[in-house]
């Protein structure tokens, strides 16, 4: 990711629609948008920010648009979930996702996170490869925290 072209910026309320649009695009492409998706995407401030989480975006300074988003959802003082990570079409495979994930992992560390986990689907091969590259390992004996029918894998890392 070219730091002169792209900036990583935190959530502000005026970016709520960008968060929804970036995530809804990938969910609709591969799955179906579920009730829990709509709850979070329609009010990320209430369900992520106000509960102790964080959202980061990647902004393309050339095109002046948000091109990626990722959330950090707080479950406990030392446990967070990497959630709702999406990169818009045309920017995938450019390293933006990795840079964004690394920034969200760093944010989790600064917040005292000891265990960071995510729930995903094995058919999202590029995402699976990225998570493994970042150091996430499959958590075999798991129970899903969020009831998304699309999730067939839980991965975790210890910070």
Automatic annotation (TrEMBL):
<keyword id="KW-0012">Acyltransferase</keyword>
<dbReference type="InterPro" id="IPR016181">
    <property type="entry name" value="Acyl_CoA_acyltransferase"/>
</dbReference>
<dbReference type="InterPro" id="IPR000182">
    <property type="entry name" value="GNAT_dom"/>
</dbReference>
<feature type="domain" description="N-acetyltransferase">
    <location>
        <begin position="17"/>
        <end position="159"/>
    </location>
</feature>
<dbReference type="InterPro" id="IPR050832">
    <property type="entry name" value="Bact_Acetyltransf"/>
</dbReference>
<keyword id="KW-0808">Transferase</keyword>
<protein>
    <recommendedName>
        <fullName>N-acetyltransferase domain-containing protein</fullName>
    </recommendedName>
</protein>
<dbReference type="Pfam" id="PF00583">
    <property type="entry name" value="Acetyltransf_1"/>
</dbReference>
């Amino acid at each position: 990711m070219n730091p002169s072209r792209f900036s990583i910026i935190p959530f502000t309320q005026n970016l709520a629609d960008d968060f929804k649009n970036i995530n809804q695009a990938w969910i609709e492409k591969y799955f179906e948008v579920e009730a829990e998706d709509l709850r979070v995407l329609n009010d990320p401030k209430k369900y992520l920010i106000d509960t102790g989480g964080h959202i980061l975006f990647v902004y393309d300074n050339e095109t002046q648009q948000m091109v990626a988003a990722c959330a950090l959802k707080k479950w406990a003082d030392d446990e967070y979930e990497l959630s709702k990570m999406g990169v818009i079409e045309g920017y995938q495979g450019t390293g933006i996702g990795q840079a964004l994930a690394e920034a969200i992992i760093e944010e989790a560390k600064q917040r005292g996170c000891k265990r960071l986990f995510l729930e995903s689907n094995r058919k999202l091969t590029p995402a699976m490869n990225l998570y493994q590259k970042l150091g996430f390992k499959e958590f075999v004996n798991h129970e899903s925290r969020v009831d998304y029918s699309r999730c067939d894998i839980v991965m975790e890392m210890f910070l």
